[in-house]
């Protein structure tokens, strides 16, 4: 596995940790996840990079408000869709 595909399973696993209320553990996993994804999104078209930035902003806003289900939704649905698009670009 290479590129975005290798991060699909960790993204879903991280979302599940947030859903289970294991927010501290999930936040640590999320930092690693985003660290791995950033260089990949840097090589995508500008429009996709903007969407990535928007999703990051939403995730961080949810995290700040301790909306763990919101964080999980963004990771499991919005982020996975961006990763799918990134794999096609």
Give the helix/strand layout.
Blueprint: H1 8-19, H2 23-41, H3 46-64, H4 68-88
Explain how this protein is built.
By secondary structure, the chain is mostly helical. It has one domain. The protein has helices at 8-19, 23-41, 46-64, 68-88. α1 runs antiparallel to α2, α1 packs antiparallel against α4 (68-88) and α3 packs antiparallel against α4. The mean pLDDT is 95.
**Number of H- or I-type helical stretches:** 4
Overall outline: globular
N- to C-terminal distance:
17 Å
Mean pLDDT: 95
Number of domains: 1
Largest sheet: none
The percent range for strand residues is under 5%
State the secondary-structure class: mainly alpha
Measured as a percent range, the helix fraction is over 70%
Number of strand elements? 0
Order of helices and strands: HHHH
Report the radius of gyration as a whole number of Å: 12 Å
- Outline the low-pLDDT stretches: none
In short:
This protein is mainly α and 89 residues long. The protein has helices at 8-19, 23-41, 46-64, 68-88.
Notable traits:
89 residues; mainly alpha
């Amino acid at each position: 596995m290479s590129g975005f595909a290798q991060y699909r399973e960790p993204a879903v696993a991280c979302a599940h940790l947030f859903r289970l209320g294991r927010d501290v553990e999930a936040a640590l996993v999320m930092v690693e996840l985003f660290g791995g994804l950033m260089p990949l999104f840097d090589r995508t078209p500008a429009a996709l990079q903007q969407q990535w930035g928007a999703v990051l902003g939403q995730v961080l806003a949810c995290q700040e408000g301790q909306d763990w289900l919101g964080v999980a939704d963004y990771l499991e649905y919005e982020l996975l869709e961006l990763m799918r698009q990134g794999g096609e670009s």
